[in-house]
Amino acid sequence: MLDAAIKALSQMISPPMRSILWRSVGLALVLITVLAIGLQRLLSWFATSGEVWLEGLLGPGWHTSLEVLSWIVSIAAGLGVVFGGVFLMPAITSLVASLFVDDVADIVEREHYPAEQPGLALPFSQAIFEGIKTALLTILVYLIALPLVLFAGAGFLIFFVAAAWLLGREYFELAAMRFRSPEEAKAMRRNNAATIFTAGLFIAAFVSIPIVNLATPIFGMAFMVHMHKRLSGPRPELIEPARQMR
């Protein structure tokens, strides 16, 4: 696993990958800026008008609880752009990865596995769907973990573990679906859940590093191409005939 991570890191700055890297970084910067600002404004609204609206909806018995929540959200809103950028990076990279999955995988397979059957490009709609699904799940985890960030770092730990699971799952399935049906890819991920979660910890650690994490789609995809190859082995018979004819 460490060897796969080192190979992915070394290939990130290789000449064939640089164009994808810069496009990925540029898109990630635009998306993270837009979403972080939007999050800050949403939290600001909740800290003011949202508290009154919720109290009217839930009743006066919730006044104290909503005041405490409003206080927490007010602090979060003040730090929204900074922490939003950090916490939302896994969601952003999930979206970006879905756009560049085949570009990255093609280069990795061509350089490291030239004698094996290459994978087939995923349908664009399918790749985007997987990216959006993971991004929305990541944002949901962020919202759940946010109130706990102020208490002994529990929110950070929850978010890190969840990000490892979500990102490991997405990147592995994207790599696997180049050779297998979505159902087979998901089944393979479940059968190797512990290994893939551990691999996801590498990606979660990478996405936690400011600035460097803009390259997460390249690292995560290249890393999981290696992991899929190692878990499946050079077995062309696993590739579905229907996929070969597509």
TrEMBL record:
Alphabetical list of InterPro entries matching this protein: CysZ/EI24 (IPR059112)
Pfam families found in the cross-reference section: EI24 (PF07264)
Localisation: Membrane
Membrane topology type: Multi-pass membrane protein
Top-level lineage group: Bacteria
Listed transmembrane segments: 20-48, 68-89, 139-167, 196-225
Protein keywords: Membrane, Transmembrane, Transmembrane helix
Protein name stated in the entry: Uncharacterized protein involved in cysteine biosynthesis
Organism: Bradyrhizobium shewense
